[in-house]
Specification:
One of its GO terms (molecular function) is fucosyltransferase activity. By secondary structure, the protein is α/β, with parallel strands linked by helices. Helix content is 30%, strand content 16%. The protein contains twelve helices and 15 strands. Helix 6 (272-278) links the parallel strand 12 and strand 13. The longest helix is centred in the first third of the chain and has 34 residues, at 4-37. The protein starts with a helix and ends with a helix. Mean pLDDT is 85; it is low at 1-5, 36-48 and 74-79. The structure holds 2-acetamido-2-deoxy-beta-D-glucopyranose (8 copies). One 2-acetamido-2-deoxy-beta-D-glucopyranose binds at residues 96, 98.
């Protein structure tokens, strides 16, 4: 006969056991989360998960090239997030694409047939388990190399990446935000917006308030001498962000200048901050590391770096604003150039490069981080504005 206390004790022990298990599960979950969040020390998962090579000749490959987005973008916006939307039909509609015999996919189950795998920076690549000799691995990015702490990620790209795809002129496949297309036109561009309607001076739409380039310091100084209306997270003016076009339209009607200051001052880095306002009747005031005399239309932007100080720039802008004819001379290029670009156009270009075997057999790059940042970090110079401040005492 079992004594009463024994039964009680079993119950208590059982309860205790449950408690212990729950605590252990919690601790384990915490540890797992902590482990995931923790920046990995260099070399830790660097070679643990790299693919092993296979010489297998993959059956079922044919003349259709498969472009596979292996990583998904960390900050999802419309850029490259949904490769499946680039169907052969939509591609032939969107661009005048001479080669669209490609499949764009992020479905990993097609891995063996894939001709090129695209890896986006900023993401811990979960490398494929097996790598086929016919495949290119491409590092594909449209953001600046700015943040040096990304080096830990980049170390993994060492000896793994065959093809570079980015905005740099020296990339294996040059992917600018936009490019210029000369057009033939027998009439001059006639501005639509009466000069007198533009009652404001400068508009600055901005969502990153503290940047590597320190542009916020420049604009703070500039706005002591020139009226700057700041839209977005870093200012007091509001426009519906869901409708970029209507915001831009309202800005071109109201302002004379659009501040197009890059968040990083890097080689060839000219972004949509410049190309967006160029498509409206407003003059972009640019600050960045790109070559603006080569990559944007002639006399289409004002480069802040041509001026010794924000005050000098402000004086120039005020002066120009009061001279209608000279102000409007910055729109003359519009009758001679068209700005083209966009993801579908780029995808067409990639498809074409694959079909025409432009990359040849292309061994992987060593010293990848040196390529991306420059051996001494010279691909970016984010100290331009701090230097100007020091010299100018502002
Ligand atoms: C893996 O990485 C460690 C540390 O970087 C290195 O010492 C080791 O040689 C590597 N192993 C292989 C197989 O590459
Ligand atoms: C070629 O391969 C692709 C992808 O596997 C497939 O969708 C397509 O139907 C194939 N074409 C031919 C002609 O077999
Ligand atoms: C499309 O491409 C064809 C052939 O390359 C060319 O003749 C035509 O002008 C292009 N159309 C446009 C709108 O660019
Ligand atoms: C991925 O492709 C495989 C094989 O073609 C297919 O069975 C599967 O449904 C696809 N997955 C998605 C999410 O489309
Ligand atoms: C210019 O301003 C006038 C008066 O406010 C307005 O009626 C007109 O629509 C404006 N023009 C443009 C192109 O914005
Ligand atoms: C934003 O857009 C919505 C819908 O178009 C509109 O109702 C609202 O008034 C807009 N807000 C501002 C601040 O313009
Ligand atoms: C910018 O590009 C032009 C035209 O290609 C070239 O002549 C000039 O030297 C470049 N400027 C710089 C600073 O590289
Ligand atoms: C890509 O690089 C790897 C490593 O160097 C190489 O084995 C592979 O053949 C290259 N791919 C192509 C298509 O050249």
């Amino acid at each position: 006969m079992t004594p009463k206390w024994s039964l009680q004790s079993t119950k208590t022990n059982f309860g205790l056991l449950i408690c212990v298990i729950i605590v252990m599960v919690c601790v384990f979950a915490q540890l797992t989360i902590w482990w995931e969040l923790r920046r990995p020390p260099e070399g830790l998962w660097r070679n643990s998960s790299l693919p092993t090579f296979s010489d297998e000749r993959v059956p079922g490959r044919n003349s259709t090239k498969i472009i596979m987005f292996w990583t998904r973008r960390a900050n999802t916006n419309n850029w490259f997030s949904y490769p499946e939307k680039f169907t052969t039909r939509s591609m032939s509609k969107i661009t005048n694409c001479s080669q669209n015999n490609c499949i764009y996919t992020s479905n990993h189950s097609l891995i063996r047939q894939a001709d090129i795998l695209l890896f986006y920076l900023n993401e811990k690549p979960d490398w494929p388990k097996v790598r086929y000799a016919h495949q290119y691995y491409a590092h594909f990015i449209h953001e600046a190399p700015g943040k040096r702490n990304q080096r830990t990620f980049l170390d993994q790209y060492e000896d793994n990446i065959n093809i570079t795809i980015n905005f740099r002129r020296d990339a294996d496949l040059y992917l600018p935000y936009n490019t210029l297309l000369p057009v033939k036109s027998d009439h001059d561009y006639r501005p639509r917006i009466p000069h007198g309607n533009k009652t404001g001076m400068a508009v600055w739409p901005v969502s990153h308030c503290v940047t590597e380039s320190h542009r916020e310091h420049y604009v703070a100084e500039l706005s002591k001498h020139l009226e700057v209306d700041i839209y977005g997270r870093c200012g007091s003016h509001i426009c519906n962000r869901s409708r970029t076009h209507s915001c831009s339209k309202s800005w071109e009607e109201k302002y004379k200048y659009y501040l197009s200051f890059e968040n990083n001052v890097c080689e060839d880095y000219i972004t949509e901050k410049v190309f967006l306002p160029l498509q409206y009747e407003i003059i972009p005031v640019v600050f960045g590391g790109g070559n603006y005399s080569r990559d944007v239309p002639p006399r289409s932007v004002i480069n802040a770096r041509d001026f010794d100080s924000p005050k000098d720039l402000a004086n120039f802008l005020i002066h120009l604003a009061s001279d209608e004819q000279r102000y409007r001379s910055y729109f003359k290029w519009k009758s001679r150039f068209e700005i083209v670009g966009g993801v579908p156009r780029f995808m067409c270009r990639l498809c074409q490069a694959l079909h025409e075997n432009e990359f040849h057999p292309h061994p992987a790059k060593s010293h990848y981080a040196d390529y991306w940042y420059g051996v001494h970090g010279e691909m970016c110079d984010n100290e331009v504005i701090p230097r100007m401040r020091k010299e100018g005492g502002w």
